[in-house]
Amino acid sequence: MPYSLLAIPQWLFLKGKMCGIVGYVGEREALPIILESLKRIEYRGYDSCGVFVLENGDSKLHKDAGTIDHLKENLSESEYLGGGKIAIGHTRWATHGGPSKKNAHPHLDGKGEIAVVHNGIIENFQSIKEMLLSQGCEFVSETDTEVIPHLINRSFKKFDQAVNAAQIKEAVKEALSHLTGSYAIIVAVKGFDGLVAARNESPLIIGVGDRENFIASDVPAVLEQTNRIIYLEEGDIAVVEKDSIYIENGGAEVKREEKLIEWTIGDAEKGGYEHFMLKEIHEEPRAIMDTLRGYLVEEEINFGVDFKVEGDAKGKSILMVACGTSYYAAMCGKQIIENLAKVPVQVELASEFNYSDFVLDGTKVMVMAITQSGETADTLMALKKAKRYGCKTVAITNVLDSSATRIADETIYIRAGPEIGVAATKSFIAQLVIFYLLGLFLSKMPASEFLEHLEELKRMPQIAQMVLDEADINIRKHAGYLSKYEHAFFVGRGVNLPIALEGALKLKEISYIHAEGYAAGELKHGPFALLTEDTPVIAILTPDNTYEKTLGNMKEIKARGAPVIAIAEEGDEEVEKYVDEVIRVPETSAIFSPIPNTVALHLLAYWTAKARGCEIDKPRNLAKSVTVE
Ligand code: F6R
Fold it and tell me: Which residue among 427, 568, 581, 620 has its CA within the 20 to 30 Å range from the CA of 401?
């Protein structure tokens, strides 16, 4: 079924996580409430933050790079208790413009009278900015958000006179009509004793209080204050004052039901999931979608990166350096790019590359460092070494302005959003998406073939969601079974060999089961000696050119008494003759099969660790970012 990015299903947007916004209007001191609320949703972003307080007819703006605690430390007692009863705040996960004071929200209009906090991405901000610049507006940041207060100002014709709720709402509506992309915004205007909020494809809630109300991206921001929550819907625009909440959609007033939340704050931070890892696995469809949206407009892929390397074009190749999960993503990337673009790709563990006598011609090889955090010491060293060879370097990372981006010549962001669980999940899948885009971008395949692949790539958020919706129960059952063992093998071939390695890594790091990932054809060259009825084998059995051979391998494995669980496509009945159990994933062409297979294996690792009662988000001896060699 053709699937257009322009017809993105609603469910994807309900799950988006990037930046946190909050607002307060009431009778209490607003600033401490806003700071506390921001702290509660710092997991949504933590590279910079800010607040805007309306104070006795005046306003104050405090913002900086860094955490909420850092911002708090720099506020004097008098500022902290300045008397302002209305405020908005933001904690940022940078997307447009690095994490700096000038790019931190709130952003103001030219007069400093309209302040906006925003979560989401304004896709057409560049053209709006150019239009506003030509009309004399001045911009102080590199963000997409700053166009919003300027647009509101422009549409708010009677701004020099006393302002009222209806005028402000209309001005906000008019401004929003120019935007494409995703947003949840809160607007504060000097002279108005309320706030205006609006959402489109990014979450936003209102916390209902007694002579006070709250607005936030997420429930934990307000749960300490109230458990009465109104969930705003797509296209809602709300005027929130201390004693009233007015919501409009499509030009008419709408009533939204108030819900009583019974979660604890801890539950709420994880969006109701027990662990960040599970929440992040459930964000995989969104991570795919956001990464696609970052570089794909209709049928055109654009990274904004110059891929040319010096020298003979015929000799051009890519060398990827990475560690851990990112290394497995790179291994998969090699196969994806070689398959789609026919460009040779070599992959090296950063820690090995750094101390090897590598033969590298800097005029012909582009080096890509794959790193979620952008801070892994081995990978940073590898980047520096590549530069010493004279190679052009590209960082593929999730974290804006991280060290890797400062070392590399160019950067491609994976747009997975903050990843809190120590075990990488959604960042791995977003890295794969970059490799599909790169493979297609670098390919010289006929247009019809290109479009066919692109259509399938656009379906991947849906495919990932189908695994979450349809395979999860079955996976839980198999996880319960797997949790009883102390050893396991994961096997795959071709593009799914790195996925087997990733499945084994994920299982061992969070469940402490000894798991080995192997090429399916390799077990017979040694590991067969370990196979017994106590060593289950998880086999990826995607129908590709290795399928028959891998089925043969299953026969050999079963002959040694090892139980086999297959990850296989819906409708593949053949596989049942060779294995004991099957986890079904949706059908894709072989090159895209790593996407559903990864989601299934991430779930399998998670539920197995859960069944063993492990500390999932913080496995023993591990850190999220490994900044030592
Ligand atoms: C495993 C995991 C690690 C990281 C590795 C590299 O789940 O998360 O193996 O992949 O430490 O980290 P980055 O990608 O930040 O360079």
Answer: 620
Cα–ligand 1 centroid distance for 437 (angstroms): 22
Is 387 a known active-site residue?
Answer: no
Strands (E), 12-160: 20-25, 48-55, 58-65, 86-92, 107-108, 114-122
Do 371 and 485 have their domain in common?
no
State the Cα–Cα distance between residues 190 and 115, nearest whole angstrom: 9
Give the pLDDT score at 6. 31
Alpha helix ranges (H) inside 96-224: 125-134, 147-155, 165-176
Distance CA(236)–CA(115), nearest Å, equals 19
| Residue among 420, 180, 380, 122 nearest 276 (CA) | 420
pLDDT computed for residue 585 by the predictor: 98
Q: How far is the CA of 30 from the centre of ligand 1 (A)?
A: 40
Closest by CA position to 537, among listed 515, 510, 508, 565 = 565
Q: For position 96, which CATH number holds?
A: 3.60.20.10
Count the residues in the chain: 629
Contacts of 458 (CB under 8 A, 6+ apart): 3, 4, 5, 292, 296
Q: From the candidates 15, 19, 169, 270, which is the catalytic residue?
A: 19
- The total number of structural domains in the chain stands at 3
Give the pLDDT confidence score for residue 314 in this predicted structure.
62
Last residue of a domain, one of 269, 298, 330: 269
Give the list of residues 6+ apart from residue 433 with CB closer than 8 angstroms, or none.
287, 288, 291, 292, 414, 457, 460
How far does residue 336's CA lie from ligand 1's centre (Å)? 20
d(CA 559, CA 501) in angstroms, rounded, equals 23
Q: Is 425 in the pocket of ligand 1 (CB under 6 A)?
A: no
Last residue of a domain, one of 228, 246, 269: 269
The tens digit of pLDDT for each residue in 7-43 reads 333 333 333 336 899 999 999 999 999 999 999 888 7
Closest CA to 99 of 51, 71, 145, 66: 66
Same domain, yes or no: 173 and 234: yes
Task: For ligand 1, pick from 626, 627, 628 the residue to mutate: most ligand atoms within 8 Å of CB.
Answer: 626
Work out whether strand 20-25 and strand 86-92 pair parallel, antiparallel, or are unpaired.
antiparallel
Tell me which residue has its CA closest to atom 16 in ligand 1. Answer: 371
Q: Looking at ligand 1, which atom is closest to the CA of residue 379? A: 16
Q: Lowest mean pLDDT: which of 182-186, 217-221, 233-237, 371-375?
A: 217-221
Residues 367 and 477 in one domain: no
Q: Is 434 in the pocket of ligand 1 (CB under 6 A)?
A: no
Q: How many CA atoms lie within 13 A of 548 on its CB side?
A: 1
Q: What is the mean pLDDT of the chain?
A: 91
Phi, psi of 353 (to 5 degrees): -55, -40
Residue 598 Cβ inside 6 Å of ligand 1? The answer reads no
CATH number at residue 281: 3.40.50.10490
Task: Tell how far the Cα of 248 is from the centroid of ligand 1, in angstroms.
Answer: 45
Is residue 624 flagged as an active site residue? yes
Round to whole Å and give the CA distance between 600 and 492.
14
324 CA: nearest ligand 1 atom: 9
Are 336 and 212 members of one domain?
A: no
Ligand 1 atom 9: residue of nearest CA: 324
Q: Can you tell me which atom of ligand 1 is nearest the CA of 325?
A: 10
> Is residue 464 situated within a structural domain?
no
In this prediction, residue 313 carries a pLDDT of 61
Per-residue model confidence (pLDDT) at position 616:
94
Q: Which domain holds residue 184?
A: 18-269
